Automatic annotation (TrEMBL):
It is an enzyme of class 2 (transferase). SUPFAM superfamilies: Nucleotide-diphospho-sugar transferases. InterPro entries: IspD, IspD/TarI, IspD/TarI_cytidylyltransf_bact, ISPD_synthase_CS, Nucleotide-diphossugar_trans. Its EC number is 2.7.7.60. Keywords: Isoprene biosynthesis, Nucleotidyltransferase, Transferase. The keyword Transferase applies. Pathway: Isoprenoid biosynthesis; isopentenyl diphosphate biosynthesis via DXP pathway; isopentenyl diphosphate from 1-deoxy-D-xylulose 5-phosphate: step 2/6. It catalyses: 2-C-methyl-D-erythritol 4-phosphate + CTP + H(+) = 4-CDP-2-C-methyl-D-erythritol + diphosphate. CDD domains: CDP-ME_synthetase (cd02516). This is 2-C-methyl-D-erythritol 4-phosphate cytidylyltransferase. Pfam families: IspD.
Length: 228
């Protein structure tokens, strides 16, 4: 079964501190956002991509799509103040049926195999997200003093793309908007409706480029993939 994708590129990249939206930073000679879009564009099961952009960067992104011959972007939607608002705007460009994969433009190392696993799981269960087991010991603190150590055996670090039945994620976003709820991912909007979200084993290499250190990790991942 095919799916549609929403790829988010409308952040500011403040934590990257690059003086520009991090989506335009070059990784192995190609802009980060291009690397991310290419994964979806090259997947036969991807029916179309809604790319969510800052209005001021619309033209620059449209030029990149032309230059790198990315053909599956069907719409450019305007981003919002927070990530959740950007996703909401992206959803408005889709019809309320089928499966949607919502992905951070800043995660270029997603594998096509995982896109398919997520889409298939969303067909079955309505909502499916990739996640990796937390490796560090996690402590809850009050200021700089430890309050407690959290049992990590049930803790997962969640990634994107997050896959949903379109009607379900639209309902969840409408409810969040109505209630003034702001989450840091899309699955949390489903959780608050009391509906199940399935976890799929993710990939530690599917990093989000957030701070300058992540550029070093990204170069290493890229180099390792060139020899695959
Ligand atoms: N209002 C927003 C905020 C974020 N994003 C996108 O959501 C993804 C994940 O967000 P994050 O890594 O936090 O990116 P930024 O918001 O760009 O970074 P920062 O918080 O450091 O400014 C990114 O691909 C970003 O472009 C978006 O489309 N619209
Ligand atoms: C959705 C997300 O990628 C899951 O890990 C993440 O929460 C988005 O990034 P942010 O830094 O929380 O905005």
């Amino acid at each position: 079964m095919k799916y549609e994708a929403i790829v988010l590129a409308a952040g500011q990249g403040k934590r990257m501190n690059a003086g520009m939206n991090k989506q335009f930073l070059e990784l192995g000679g190609e802009p980060l956002i291009v690397r991310t879009l290419k994964v979806f564009d090259g997947d036969a099961r991807c029916a179309g991509i809604v790319l969510v952009v800052n209005p001021a960067e619309r033209q620059r992104l449209a030029q990149l799509l032309e230059r790198y011959r990315i053909r599956k972007v069907t719409a450019l939607a305007n981003g919002g103040q927070e990530r959740q608002h950007s996703v909401y705007n992206g959803l408005q460009a889709l019809k309320g049926e089928g499966i949607v994969l919502i992905h951070d433009g800043a995660r270029p190392f997603i594998r096509v195999r995982q896109l398919h696993e997520l889409a298939d799981a969303a067909v079955q269960d309505g909502a499916a997200i990739p996640a990796v087991r937390v490796k560090d010991t996690i402590k809850k603190a009050n200021g700089l003093f430890v309050e407690e150590t959290i049992d990590r055996s049930s803790l997962w670090a969640v990634q994107t793309p997050q896959a949903f039945r379109l009607s379900l994620i639209m309902e969840a976003h409408e409810a969040a908007k109505r209630d003034g709820y702001l989450g840091t991912d899309d699955a949390s909007l489903i959780e608050r409706l009391g509906k199940p979200v399935r976890l799929l084993e993710g990939d530690y290499q599917n990093i989000k480029l957030t701070t300058p250190d992540d550029l070093l990790f990204a170069e290493a991942i890229l180099a390792s993939r060139l020899v695959e």
